[in-house]
Design brief:
428 residues, mainly alpha, 17 helices, two-stranded antiparallel sheet, Na+/H+ antiporter like fold, 2 strands
């Protein structure tokens, strides 16, 4: 099936699933993922459109750029929430909550997996425990944002949640860089220097933020010469495309810094574009509204493609029991860690009672960033010759993602409703 028809099918099944989810009173993102799984190459897709499991990787990679662009715009939208006056109201509190909930998820997940290690021994390498712990930090901004948008949620929980999930990715990237470097050393496949563990990851983050800041300032300056909202929207689209394109180029060309592989985070860079734009332009709101009007198809495609990428045939393999056990521990411990870290830090910073009680439940979804980090780990372990580690980490995260993205948005909706921040549902 060619790319155009794949995209058309993804949009069609996503649209139909949103109507079904409306009838079932479930978030749209849940329907998108289910539709992707059902019509993807591992279920019905193998019987229609010439999409078979043999050419799955080729077929999905051909349209993977759509997901990268969608994540870029999601990050941009989140960055637009970093308005100076809003951050001044919640700034220090948000930083504390983010660090505590992210590291809480990582630490408790690692602890739970070490308990499982006592029983599984050689079947669960320590390198995998550390890698999964790092990935546990990440939260899915896309799923959370989709629920907030769909139900027009407003209130203190949302005001805290949006910047938390944005900063959350920065913490996840740092944690992954450090812990995954240690994981690689534990495999015995490479020596790891302090440069690789600390300096290079920090430079990647700094350069990502710097690139986004420069592009955000340039877009803001460009608005002085282009007055229409259409042209200003085009400048933003161009900036996001530049970031995503450079990020993909860095990976494909294996850019190096100080002799080690170097890349930068398109998520952090795109968030900075949004942050700079919202703070440098007093009229940014109108342009952002225009961007929001054209991005829903991208978000739909992102989740449908994510669902299609989840290989459910893993449950029929010889490692199915191991994957299920590790995934179950990962899912439960991460949720416990996220909620505990959120509750303790919210209470310590004297956040509103609704934030203390419900914020942790809204941090359960996990998808794009986690899948990206798991893919990185999978490729690295494979290159080092450790196929078991490579397949296990990806299988666990994909399994967890299915659960998180099917259940997480529903829990987020329920939590926001109980917090009184969803007034009414709007018809699709």
């Amino acid at each position: 099936m060619n790319q155009i028809l794949c995209i058309a099918l993804a949009l069609l099944v996503g649209l139909l699933s949103s109507r079904l989810m409306k009838l079932l009173r479930l978030p749209n993102v849940t329907g998108y993922l289910i539709a992707g799984i059902i019509f993807g190459p591992y279920v019905l897709g193998k019987y229609i459109g010439g999409w078979t499991t043999e050419n799955t990787e080729t077929s999905l990679n051909a349209i993977k750029w759509i997901s990268d662009i969608a994540l870029g715009f999601i990050a941009f939208t989140i960055g637009c929430s970093f308005k100076k006056d809003a951050l001044q109201r919640v700034g220090k509190r948000v930083i504390i909550i983010t660090i505590c909930e992210a590291l809480g998820g990582a630490i408790i997940t690692i602890g739970g997996l070490f308990i499982a290690y006592a029983f599984l021994k050689d079947q669960l390498p320590i390198s995998i425990i550390l890698t999964l712990g790092a990935i546990a930090c990440a939260t899915a901004p896309a799923a959370t944002l989709m629920v907030i948008r769909q139900y027009k949620a407003r209130g203190p929980v949302v005001d805290t949640l949006v910047p938390v999930v944005a900063f959350d990715d920065a913490v996840a990237l740092i944690a992954f860089a450090v812990l995954f470097s240690l994981s690689k050393s534990l495999t015995g496949g490479t020596s790891v220097s302090a440069l690789e563990i600390v300096v290079v990851p920090l430079l990647e983050i700094i350069m990502s933020i710097g690139l986004g800041a420069v592009l955000g300032i340039l877009v803001s300056i460009g608005c002085k010469f282009f007055k229409s909202r259409a042209n200003r929207s085009i400048m933003i689209i161009c900036a996001v495309f530049i970031v995503v394109g450079l990020s993909m180029l860095a990976v494909s060309k294996q850019w190096k810094m100080f002799g080690v592989d170097f890349s930068f985070s398109s998520l952090l860079a795109c968030m900075m574009i949004g942050a700079m734009f919202i703070n440098f332009r007093t009229d940014a709101g109108r342009v952002i509204e225009r961007i929001d009007a054209i991005t829903p198809p991208l978000y739909m495609l992102f989740f449908v493609i994510s669902g299609a990428s989840l290989d459910i045939t893993i449950f029929a393999s010889k490692d199915a029991i191991l994957v299920v056990i590790v995934a179950l521990v990962y899912i439960v411990m991460r949720c416990v860690g996220k909620w505990t870290g959120s509750y303790v830090s919210s209470k310590a910073t004297h956040a509103e009672p609704a934030v203390q009680k419900y914020l942790g439940f809204t941090l359960f979804p996990q998808a794009g960033v986690a899948i990206g980090l798991a893919t990185t780990a999978n490729q690295t372990f494979s290159n080092l010759g450790y196929q078991k580690e490579a397949s296990l980490v990806l299988a666990v995260i994909l399994t967890a993602t299915i659960v998180y993205e099917l259940v997480g948005p529903v829990i987020t909706k329920i939590s926001l409703s109980k917090a009184g921040e969803i007034v009414k549902e709007k018809a699709a």
